[in-house]
Here is the input.
Amino acid sequence: MGIAHELATTLELDSVGAFISGGTPEKDRPEYWDGVVPWVTARDLKQFQLSETGLSLTSAGAERLRIAPRNSILILVRGMTLFKDIPVALIDREMAFNQDIKAIIVDPKYDARFVAYQIVAKKNQILGLVDSAGHGTGRLDTAQLKSIAIWLPPLPDQKKIAAFLGAVDEKLNGLRRNHDLLADYKRGVMQQLLSQKLRFKSDDGSAFPDWEVRELQDIAERCTAKNSKLTITRVLTNSAVQGVVDQGDYFDKDIANAENLGGYYIVERGDFVYNPRISETAPVGPIKRNNLETGVMSPLYLIFRMDVECIEFFAQYFDSSFWHEYLKSVANYGARHDRMAITTSDFMSMPLPWPDPDEQRKIADFLSALDTKIDATAEQIIQTEAFKKGLLQKMFV
Here is the structure.
């Protein structure tokens, strides 16, 4: 266990620190809430280094609970999340926490960050300890958690290893900040460009003509060809976040029955797909372009193929929210609450902006260049996360 070290020892987690439990003050006592003491819940455990929380307590509310000191380790022990992840955080200030979380106050003889990284490295092992508390809630037995073996070289070496892993985390945090800044910048400049508050000029410096408006049916046709001969077996789905993806990758299994694929629509590369299912990230459902090869999709989706020179302009436009109001205005809200009920006629009558084709190209090129930078940063994040995971596995597992 761990990298070789002649002076290293191994102890159970219970011998490395003291476990304390959290709680929740009465919600109907306003004098307990909105103070200066952070109060941690499961939704706050999204990052390793925890500095801020969504909710806070007053001193009156906090004094009713156990307070975890700075450099304590927080670990979720109850919640649905436990079936797929073990959220762990190291706090950089005193914090209160609820009853779904345990705090580990690490003995000063050991480096708390080093111990926390080791718990993160053992997540797969800890996941095996999770059982069901009923109603789909996961439970991590504290007694079993306390028995997890922790490898402990001398304190100076613990600090060196923790500092190195901390430097990797700093790089990751920097990449995430850069990714978020680029994404925010793109959203802002897209808003300016598509609202015509910011305009490009033609190559000779003259102004482009005013934008026209065209209906979707004037520049696109609906795709209704079915997979009647069952020649295509690749099933696609449209995710609001990931776009058009293989169904098996998205759901971790194939949902469609191979025998029923004859009624599915054929989707070619470059076709657009509207998914009427609404979500927090897609309040009227997403429209995404298929960047994969030919596949088939459920007839619940509406598929269309655009006949335009600059298809990228419309791919960018559909990534915006400018078309949402129209769909809301024609939707039937008496239908299922999780889907937009829109007739094909109303959908294909959607009004779309029509800049001069050269201006379309300039807008598309500018936004696509930003996408390239955003995607490159996202790939760096993936690679750095994989590097960190490999380090943790090599050191501690």
